[in-house]
Structures are given as structure tokens and as C-alpha cells.
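User: Let's play a game. I give you a shape written as C-alpha cells, and you guess the letters that built it. Ready? Here's round one.
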């Protein structure tokens, strides 16, 4: 039986003024997509240049990850900041701990 892993993640822009919460089965792939779409108006993350990883959680089941994403999205900014602070109090960008950063092309699965 194949093991699956899903992630809920929070990314921000360079000035840490905007937070984006998402769910994915590949952090590396998704961070690359956010980075390569920076500055585009096609998506919220692209429009606000949100591709710096601040926080993530992993899940075995996709429905658990989706439920957690929805829950966090419903929180106030203050509560989201408290969650980030619980694991990353200095708000360091974690991208290079996940992958080679910055990416140069889309990661193939």
C-alpha cells in the first residue's frame, strides 16, 4: 500500500504583510509554482507575491488536510500569527529547508 502525505502550509510575501494558506501533496512542487507565478494576477498568491514558506503541517489523509486548511483560513490574522509563532517565532523563510531555493523550473512528480 502506498503512503500518501499531504500538507497544509502558510506562505507570505517578502514584507510578511500577506498570508496565504494552502493544501498540497508536494510542498516542493507547490512552492515552485507559487514562485514562478509571482506577480501574476491569476491567483491570490501570485498577485501578492506569496511564496515564502513560514509554516506547514503534514497529514496522512487529504480530507484531514483540507479540513485543517479550511479551519485556519477562518481564523483571524492574530490567531494565524500565533500558529506560525508556535513553530517559527522568528518568521524565518523555510523554503531552503524544503528544497533548493530559489527554484528554476517546475518540479516534475
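Assistant: Ready! My guess for every position:
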Amino acid at each position: 500500500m502506498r503512503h500518501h502525505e499531504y500538507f497544509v502550509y502558510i506562505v507570505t510575501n517578502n514584507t510578511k504583510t500577506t498570508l496565504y494558506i494552502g493544501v498540497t501533496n508536494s510542498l516542493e512542487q507547490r512552492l515552485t509554482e507559487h514562485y514562478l507565478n509571482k506577480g501574476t494576477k491569476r491567483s491570490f498568491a501570485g498577485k501578492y507575491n506569496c511564496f515564502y514558506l513560514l509554516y506547514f503541517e503534514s497529514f496522512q489523509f487529504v480530507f484531514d488536510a483540507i479540513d485543517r486548511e479550511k479551519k485556519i483560513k477562518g481564523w483571524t490574522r492574530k490567531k494565524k500569527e500565533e500558529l506560525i509563532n508556535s513553530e517559527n517565532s522568528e518568521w524565518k523563510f523555510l523554503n531552503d529547508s524544503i528544497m533548493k531555493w530559489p527554484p528554476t523550473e517546475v518540479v516534475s512528480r
